[in-house]
Amino acid sequence: MPIPTPEPGLVISYAYLWHHEHEAGREEGRKDRPSVIVLAVERPANDTTVVVVLPITHAAPADPAGAVEIPAAVKRQLGLDDERCWIVVAEGNEFDWPGYDIRKIGRSDRHDYGFLPPRFFKQVIVAFIAWHRARKVKLTSRE
Q1: CB burial of residue 105 (10 Å; 0-12, 13-18, 19+)
Q2: 91 C-beta neighbours (distance < 10 Å), count
Q3: How far is it, in rounded angstroms, from Cα 101 to Cα 88?
Q4: Which of 89, 26, 96 is nearest to 57 (CA)?
Q5: What are phi and psi of 36, to 5 degrees?
Q6: Using one digit for the tens of pLDDT, what is the confidence trace for 66-101?
Q7: Domains delineated in the chain
Q8: Collapsing DSSP states into helix, strand and coil, what is residue 126?
Q9: How many Å apart are CA 113 and CA 126, to the nearest integer?
Q10: Which of 14, 52, 71, 78 can bridge 39 by disulfide, Cβ–Cβ 3.0-4.6 Å?
């Protein structure tokens, strides 16, 4: 199956590089994890699309405003496990699509889990914007 078109709300399998890992000198993410595309901007001048992804994690956030918990129904729709998990809005990765860090999901030919429902995706975007306005979102460039 080909790599999908990058669209906001799409959850992809991605080798996410945490900001603290980047600051420690790492260039590759430790593991592949579901990550949500929140921004996809086409740049016709150099025929690229820049995307920003937010990671999904089982780790509860230290600051509740820094993440949005994913409801059980949404996890089921995406095929994620039953453990509690959050979309982190306090940091993200930015890269030119498709980049080197998009991964297949397990042994499947798919690179994506599907889309977040629009109403829930709006909650994620609102939280991301609020965090960005109150504090500086830590965006790690993966170019």
Answers
A1: middle
A2: 21
A3: 18
A4: 89
A5: -100, 130
A6: 999 999 999 999 999 999 999 999 999 999 999 999
A7: 10-141 (2.30.30.110)
A8: helix
A9: 22
A10: 52
Question: Which two structure tokens, joined as six digits, stand for 90?
Answer: 């306090």
Instruction: Tokens 């889990």: give the residue.
Output: 113
Dihedral over Cα of 6, 13, 105, 49: its sign = positive
Q: How far is CA 19 from CA 39, 64, 77, 121, 139, in A?
A: 18, 18, 29, 23, 7
Threshold 0.90, pTM exceeds = yes
Neighbouring C-beta atoms of residue 124, cutoff 10 Å: 20
Handedness of CA 101, 104, 110, 115 (dihedral sign): negative
Which two structure tokens, joined as six digits, stand for 120?
């829930």
CA distance 32 to 19: 15
Question: Per the structure block, which two tokens stand in for 19?
Answer: 């900001």
> Which amino acid appears at position 137 of this protein?
V
| pLDDT single digits (tens) 33-46 | 999 999 999 999 99
**Beta bridge partners of residue 125, listed in sequence order:** none
